[in-house]
Amino acid sequence: MYLRCRLHPYPTPGQQSALVRAFGCARVVFNDRIAARRDAYSAGEMFPTASELSKRLITNAKKTPKRGWFAEVSASILQQALRDADRAYRSYFESLVGRACSVGVPRYKSHRDRRQAVRFTNNAGRLVMAGGRLRLPKGAWLVELETMPDHVHLIVEVDPQYGVHKLVKAVKGRRSCVLRIDFPWLRSKLPTLWTNSYFAATVGGASLSATRRFVDHLKAR
């Protein structure tokens, strides 16, 4: 038996931006999956397996400047987009032999379509919390950003279940992608732009306002 719940979310502006990124990434992966099948059919080649597509369209794509922003969303969203495309083709082929109701061949999704959607699995960190709050993967929201001549300060709200190490990895991955786009010579000079290490410490129970004043004080110096 499947349980279906209908929720009316009220995301903050930062969460709205994160959801838009999730919708966009899922749509691009779905369309890449459609394109891969069409290319294989046109070339008369065997269609790649699900694992090969996952590696090519998600894992390897994250390492390219063109698709580096995939790292900003949960991998579960991208995997589900691939499965949705597979299900669409499976339903289409079953309809051709009379095993299912008639459906058309899967088509590309348009960014102009207002019916954007993503799907989360139960093991992807989804949880309805007390007070009607819905926690989703990639649960980190940027509260404030301050740039300095040689470094930046980020005040980030992070879900405890998300983990600081995942946040650091996401920030490093995205910035590395952007820097390689802005400075192409970095692609050949350095294999990686960041080390694997990082340092994290508490602020001694200081409030958010106190932390903001500390950052403002550093900027004024």
3D architecture notes:
By secondary structure, the chain is mostly helical. It folds into 2 domains: 99 residues, Transposase IS200-like (Alpha-Beta Plaits), CATH 3.30.70.1290; 81 residues, no CATH class. It is built from 6 helices and 4 strands, in the order αααββββααα. Helix 1 packs across helix 3 and helix 2 packs across helix 3. The longest helix is centred in the N-terminal third of the chain and has 31 residues. About 2% of the residues have low confidence. One of its GO terms (molecular function) is transposase activity. InterPro entries: Transposase_17 (IPR002686), Transposase_17_sf (IPR036515), Transposase_put_HTH (IPR021027).
Question: Helices, strands, pairings?
Answer:
Elements: H1 13-43, H2 50-59, H3 75-96, E1 127-128, E2 134-135, E3 140-147, E4 152-158, H4 164-182, H5 186-189, H6 208-220
Antiparallel strand pairs: 1-2, 3-4
Helix pairs in contact: 1-3, 2-3
Radius of gyration over C-alpha positions, nearest whole angstrom: 21 Å
Question: CATH superfamily of the largest domain, please?
Answer: Transposase IS200-like
Q: How much is the average pLDDT?
A: 76
Number of DSSP strand runs: 4
Q: Order of strands across the biggest sheet?
A: 1-2
Report the structural category. mainly alpha
Architecture of the largest domain, according to CATH? 2-Layer Sandwich
Please work out how many helical segments DSSP would assign. Answer: 6
Helix content: 40-55%
The profile of the biggest β sheet is: 2 strands, antiparallel
Main CATH class of the largest domain: Alpha Beta
Domain Transposase IS200-like: 105-218
Pfam families: HTH_OrfB_IS605 (PF12323), Y1_Tnp (PF01797)
GO molecular function: DNA binding; transposase activity
Organism: Saccharopolyspora karakumensis
